[in-house]
Specification:
This protein has 444 residues and is an alpha+beta fold. It has 13 helices and 17 strands. Helices cover 34% and strands 17% of the residues. It has a six-stranded mixed β-sheet with strand order 4-3-2-1-5-6, sandwiched between helices. A five-stranded antiparallel β-sheet has the order 14-13-15-16-17.
Length: 444
Amino acid sequence: MANDHSPAHMPRKIDPSRRPATKPDGTPDDPNRVEIGPTQLAFDEWAAAGIDVPNLERMRHHRHGRIVDALAKWDYGAVFLTDPLNIRYATDTTNMQLWNAHNPFRACMVCADGYMLIWDYARNEHLSSYAPLVREVRSNAGLFYFSASDLAHDRAEALGDQIVDLIREHCGGNMRVGVDKMQLHGIRSLEARGVIVEDGEEIMEKTRLIKGPDEISAMRCALYACEQAMHEMEDALQPGMTEVDAWAVLQTGNFRRGGEWIETRILNSGPRTNPWMQECGPRVLQQNELFAFDTDMIGCYGMCADLSRTWWIGPGEPSAEQKRLYREAKDLIVENTASLKPGMTFEEVSHAGRELAEEFIPQRYGSKMHGVGLCDEWPSIKWPCDVTPICGNYTLQPGMMLCVETYMGVKGAKDGIKLEDQVLITEDGVENMTNYPWDEKLLG
């Protein structure tokens, strides 16, 4: 039979002018794609605001490279991760993040030669299909009792064998392995096989500390999306709605833009603003009172937008005391932000800027500043009264992100003010990445 060379049977040639359509962040523009990410609403808002989006392929390679470099620096053969945010950092993949946080069914191992694999929920291999840095997907790493039951020991033994085989193949036989939050059966299994279990949480926190250019772009996107949701909540705010009604507006705004989840639900109104840290509930908002919240939002690209504001619900005027508290809090945020520059030790940061007045120390917030990235991250920089000697061992570096925050509330009083901005340490100083305005009525 003669060969058929008609056009319909000719081998297809690649037309370089017809490349697959991509979104602004470089991911394929395919609505049926498994990968989670920003919605068109978010992309449109960022474009209108002139905000550059990250290139995700470049960001993923940057993070992978930082882990491999850290393994070489610390002389670890590998790092074995079960914390879902460490897995997100290494692979940029997700799977039931909140459920995974208390049922650790996922694991990731990054080896000294760069080989990276995931143990995922059984038959969920497709969730990592878009991640080319993930070279292999396995299952059955979950050692928690709900999943493994009385077979947790046997499953840990099998997992230990796999890890040792990977060490031989990809880690040059280096048995020092950083482990972040592995369960007891797993630790025992590794140690029985001669694995030297090291602190994987420390190496990952320090690896995640410095953000690359695309991570900074991703954070700008997440913060802008968060602030748009904050505007929507402030516009909807009125007496008669409940605290949870207001919270739902904020979180709806996050989800509509492709954000992912909420770390806490800290939102208080009226007399519940003092003391701080109460979670929002069914209390009905009243006229002429304070409304305060902490976003703690895991937003677009999995980046944490952690901002706090306190607003005045009218129609009347705030009291002189409420204005005083607000001005104290706002001035502290502004002055403490301005005090930052690269090269400062964490201890110097603790003592720099505006001092916390004696009346506010008993109910001070737990940290003066803290790191932020995929969540609230290391370091936690304390107030002078809480500073420890270890704080002198570390310095601010360009690429670090911090949340600058405070709570102003006198113990036993009625009102409290919570404010928080997010900043970036630059080569020559600090950039405030927050654009949400202060409350003009409370400023007086």
